[in-house]
Amino acid sequence: MSEFNMANYLKFWGGKVEEFFETYITCDDEHLKGLISAMRYSLFAGGKRLRPALVYSSYGIFEGYFDKVTPFASAVEMLHTYSLIHDDLPAMDDDDMRRGKPTNHKMYGEATAILAGDGLLTKSFEVMCNKDINPDVEASLMLEAAFKLAVATGENGMVGGQFADMESEDGVFNSSVVDFIHTNKTSKLIAYCCELGAILGYGSDEDKKRMREYGMRIGLAFQIVDDILDITSTTQELGKDVGSDEARGKATYPAIHGVEQSHAKAELLIEEALEIISVYGKTAEPCREIAKFIIERKN
Amino acid sequence: MSEFNMANYLKFWGGKVEEFFETYITCDDEHLKGLISAMRYSLFAGGKRLRPALVYSSYGIFEGYFDKVTPFASAVEMLHTYSLIHDDLPAMDDDDMRRGKPTNHKMYGEATAILAGDGLLTKSFEVMCNKDINPDVEASLMLEAAFKLAVATGENGMVGGQFADMESEDGVFNSSVVDFIHTNKTSKLIAYCCELGAILGYGSDEDKKRMREYGMRIGLAFQIVDDILDITSTTQELGKDVGSDEARGKATYPAIHGVEQSHAKAELLIEEALEIISVYGKTAEPCREIAKFIIERKN
Question: pTM of the prediction?
Answer without folding.
Answer: 0.97
